[in-house]
């Protein structure tokens, strides 16, 4: 997405273009998820934030747990789902613990699957809705130290590929957005001395750029279906 596209999205952020729409945003209390929730609200959308902590403007839920997702379906009926919750850790595969591998796949892939599985039937029944997942450049490019993370994001890409095929002609849309490194709190825990090849934080994408992209795909005309969108800083 080029700078003109971002300017267009930012112009929409206070336009009320999503008025009357309801969105469920996971991971909405920090980083990319927080920026997405703010941007969608600015566009007039009614946003419910989902987080494991206690969000002031949403509900407490762990998207990796089936019982929490089932509870969400009892109180929420969104037009839009944005899965921005995630886990990240850098480690060579030989040094990645089974616990870390399972935790990262659960947050990034299992959580997306559970959300889709829970809410998609309603969207199909009414013939409308949009499911957006936040992937990563690590889901299309092999990067050292990203074994578990890439496995989860490549898996998310595969899940969306099948979802896209299954949604054709239903009126429901899905989009996978795959940003490059984005400056969020996840990087606070990374030891840069042990990972000297990482991009500088000031050279990373801002979370708001990802949020602008989400708004961009959500406001495309119904006949315009954006399946995948890579996002890198120019």
Explain what the structure shows:
The structure is a single chain. The protein has about 230 residues and is α/β, with parallel strands linked by helices. The protein has a single domain, classed as NAD(P)-binding Rossmann-like Domain (Rossmann fold), CATH 3.40.50. Helix content is about 40%, strand content about 15%. It is built from 6 helices and 7 strands. It has helices at about 5-10, 30-40, 65-75, 100-125, 145-165, 205-220, and strands at about 20-25, 45-50, 60, 80-85, 130-135, 170-180, 230. Strands 3-2-1-4-5-6-7 form a 7-stranded parallel sheet, with helices on both faces. Strand 4, helix 4 (about 100-125) and strand 5 (about 130-135) form a beta-alpha-beta unit. Helix 2 (about 30-40) packs across helix 6 and helix 4 runs parallel beside helix 5 (about 145-165). The longest helix is centred in the middle third of the chain and has 29 residues, at about 100-125. The radius of gyration is 17 Å and the shape is globular. It starts with a helix and ends with a strand.
Q: In brief, what are we looking at here?
A:
By secondary structure, the chain is an alpha/beta fold.
């Amino acid at each position: 997405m080029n700078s003109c596209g971002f300017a267009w999205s930012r112009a929409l952020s206070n336009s009320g273009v999503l008025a009357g729409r309801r969105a469920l945003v996971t991971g909405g209390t920090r980083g990319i998820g927080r920026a997405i929730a703010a941007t969608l609200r600015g566009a007039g959308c009614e946003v419910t934030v989902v987080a494991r902590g206690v969000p002031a403007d949403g509900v407490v839920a762990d998207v990796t747990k089936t019982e929490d997702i089932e509870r969400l379906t009892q109180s929420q009926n969104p037009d839009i789902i944005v899965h921005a919750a995630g886990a990240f850790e850098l480690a060579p595969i030989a040094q990645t613990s089974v616990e870390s591998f399972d935790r990262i796949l659960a947050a990034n892939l299992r959580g997306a699957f559970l959300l889709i599985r829970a809410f998609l039937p309603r969207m199909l029944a009414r013939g409308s809705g949009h499911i957006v997942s936040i992937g990563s450049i690590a889901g299309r490019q092999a990067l050292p130290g990203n074994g578990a993370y890439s496995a989860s994001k490549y898996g998310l890409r595969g899940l969306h590929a099948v979802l896209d095929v299954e949604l054709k002609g239903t009126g429901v849309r899905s989009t996978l957005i795959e940003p490059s490194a984005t400056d969020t709190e996840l990087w606070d825990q990374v030891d840069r001395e042990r990972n000297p090849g990482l991009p500088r934080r000031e050279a990373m994408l801002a979370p708001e750029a990802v949020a602008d992209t989400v708004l961009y795909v959500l406001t495309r005309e119904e006949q315009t279906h954006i399946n995948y969108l890579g996002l890198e800083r120019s």
